[in-house]
Amino acid sequence: MVTPDRPIGIFDSGLGGLTVARAVIDLLPHEDIVYFGDTARCPYGPRPPEKVRSFALEITDLLVAEGVKLVVVACNSAESTAFYEATGRYEVPIVSVIEPGVRAAIAASRSGRIGLIGTEATIASGAYDRVVTATGADVVLESRACPRFVDFVEAGETASEAVLVAAEEYLGPLRESGVDTLILGCTHYPLLSGAIRYVMGEHVVLISSAEATASEVYARLLDLDLLKRDATEGRRRFITSGGEDRFGELGRRFLGPEFDGVEQRPWQLAADRRAAS
Questions:
Q1: Is 75 a catalytic residue?
Q2: Which is catalytic among the residues 10, 24, 59, 75?
Q3: Which of 171, 236, 245, 247 has the fewest CB atoms within 10 Å distance of its CB?
């Protein structure tokens, strides 16, 4: 039975989902959180959809085994390949990042011309296009894949000349097309928002799904009577499939004082090697 005292599970291909964790902590400071970053296999974007799907379900299995009461798929690539299967596979509710981001973008756009940037897997999946169509909103969505952005963030490189050059290459066509709202369709991308805003201009509204997703988490827990009743500060656990030192260094940089250590789960690496053999 799912109970309010269980933690919230959040996962991403790497560190980008910490933007969602940050928003959840800010909105729900008393909730416990278990975060999994699959840094050993990041980035997911260039991988085949079936491989990304298997990773996402594997990690969700891990979080459910940890006893979470809700899972946030804080990875657009994973959601675009595995979300609907996951919602029917587990007892706990699954929260996405795509739908909250789309709703926020539609509400913010003045002209109905919305840009989307994401990984190759997310853009190729058409997941955002399907959600936009399902809303019935009179908007046009223009998409661009930005494959190097995740690599920059995972390396801790967020304000270099190389980042700005890549941002101009990827975003220039969207700027010229006249979009007035840009969905950051990967949870890594808000960490590059300085370069993105510089290239797009101040008049373009940047939509990070982190805050909208945190609000969705709150609403789901409230509706299911699963909000934690204990008013003490929540506990946070961080797990990585890669190196602890690198994850710890960047986790403290991106999340701040709420990041107080990381655990390694090397079985992820072994499982990947078995699948590849």
A1: yes
A2: 75
A3: 245
